[in-house]
Every structure is written in structure tokens, then in C-alpha cells.
Design brief:
Layout (H helix, E strand, L loop, with lengths): L1 H9 L2 H6 L16 E13 L6 E12 L2 E14 L2 E7 L1
Antiparallel strand pairs: 1-2, 2-3, 3-4
Length: 91
């Protein structure tokens, strides 16, 4: 999760697409040029250890768009594919 957040901060589309599950991955990732990421808080995790095939991460990511300070609150699902954790979807 932290690496994907960092990829959004750096606008690293290649990494985001590589770390996205092939069944749910979009063709591209667009970035809002007026958006500035301000911080990530991991609230909770479920499973996701070396013995698990799936896991979730609940997080809050703070950002600014113009003069607005906002927050994205999501529970993300991840699966391990060929030994690598990939993002599946979020709610």
C-alpha cells in the first residue's frame, strides 16, 4: 500500500499498472495536475502475511486540490500473484 501511495505522489503510472491485478487493471492512470498528496495513514490491515493469498488495507490519504484539503478513505483488497502483492480493488 505504501509503495502504491508513493507511486501516486511521484505520478509513476508504470509502477501503478504493474502492481494492479490484471483482472481489474485499467488501461492507463490519469493524474490530476492540481492535486498534491499530503500524507498516508494505514488504519488497519487484515491478513496479508507471508502465509496469506489475500489481504486488505484500510487507509486514509490526505491531499490538497487548490485551496481544498480533502481525504480519501478506502479499504483496498490485495492478492498475491506469483509471490507479488497486487491491488485488486477498493471500496
Amino acid at each position: 500500500m505504501r509503495s502504491r501511495y508513493s507511486a501516486y505522489v511521484r505520478r509513476d503510472e508504470d509502477y501503478l499498472l504493474r502492481s494492479w491485478h490484471v483482472d481489474t487493471r485499467p488501461d492507463s492512470v490519469s493524474f490530476d495536475p492540481n492535486l498534491e498528496w499530503l500524507g498516508l495513514e494505514v488504519v488497519a490491515t487484515t491478513a496479508g502475511t507471508g502465509f496469506d493469498a489475500d489481504g486488505t488495507v484500510e487507509f486514509r490519504a490526505r491531499f490538497r486540490r487548490g485551496s481544498e484539503h480533502l481525504e480519501l478513505h478506502e479499504v483496498s483488497s490485495f492478492s498475491r500473484v506469483d509471490g507479488v502483492w497486487v491491488y485488486v480493488h477498493g471500496e
